[in-house]
Design a protein that fits this description.
Blueprint: E1 8-15, H1 18-31, E2 39-43, E3 45-46, E4 59-61, E5 70-72, E6 83-84, H2 92-103, E7 106-114, E8 118-119, E9 123-124, E10 129-135, E11 140-144, E12 147-149, E13 156-160, E14 166-170, E15 176-183
Antiparallel strand pairs: 1-13, 2-7, 3-6, 4-5, 4-9, 7-15, 8-14, 10-13, 10-15, 11-12, 11-14
């Protein structure tokens, strides 16, 4: 059984059909290109004004033994990411998006894929995130501060306090795939 705390926990009222998410993943792959990197990403939302989207966005990290914090990338106005990918509107992902929007003010919504035996850097983001695991293994962990857990692909959406220092790692042999949405009105 997974253990959770105030920084990582399932959101009881946000439960989705995991089989439909996994099934429609192939339909998403057929219409959109992953952007390369340690974490591959497909943006399901884009800026409503047609401006160019930013795949990464601002974050802070402590890259050296000194512990000094450094800013990476530039600020992204998450609030303008309100246009859902037209090619994906006939998928279950659009239903999930509308449900998330009914509960929260949502920024960017992306499908993020972490390669096997890979991890992100220790960093913090300007906003918290909702994670909906689509494909994962027990060796895939999320660590917020000093708390680590595996988030199962069981249909639940999970709150992850990414405003605190955190890392995601995939210690498994398969790709770890999550639907990730930025929360703009978290209390």
């Amino acid at each position: 059984m997974e253990k959770y705390n105030n920084d990582i926990y399932p959101i009881d009222e946000l439960y989705f059909d995991i089989a439909r998410l996994q099934e429609d993943l192939g339909r998403i792959y057929a219409t959109a290109q992953y952007k390369e990197g340690a974490v591959y990403g497909i943006s399901l939302t884009t800026p409503a004004d047609g401006s160019e989207e930013d795949g990464r966005g601002i974050f802070w990290t402590k890259p050296s033994a000194s512990g000094a914090e450094e800013q990476r990338e530039e600020h992204v106005d998450e609030s303008i990411y309100t246009k859902f990918l037209e090619e994906a509107k006939d998928t279950y992902y659009y239903e999930v998006y509308k449900t998330l929007c009914a509960h929260y003010k949502i920024g960017r919504v992306r499908i993020l894929k972490l390669k096997p035996r890979a991890s992100l850097s220790w960093h913090r983001d300007p906003e918290p995130r909702i994670h909906i695991p689509i494909i994962t293994t027990p060796g895939s962990l999320v660590v917020v501060e000093n708390f680590a857990t595996s988030i199962p692909a069981n249909g639940y959406a999970y709150f992850v306090n990414t405003e605190k220092y955190h890392i995601a790692m995939n210690g498994g042999e398969e790709e770890r795939i999550h639907l990730v949405a930025t929360i703009l009105d978290a209390e």
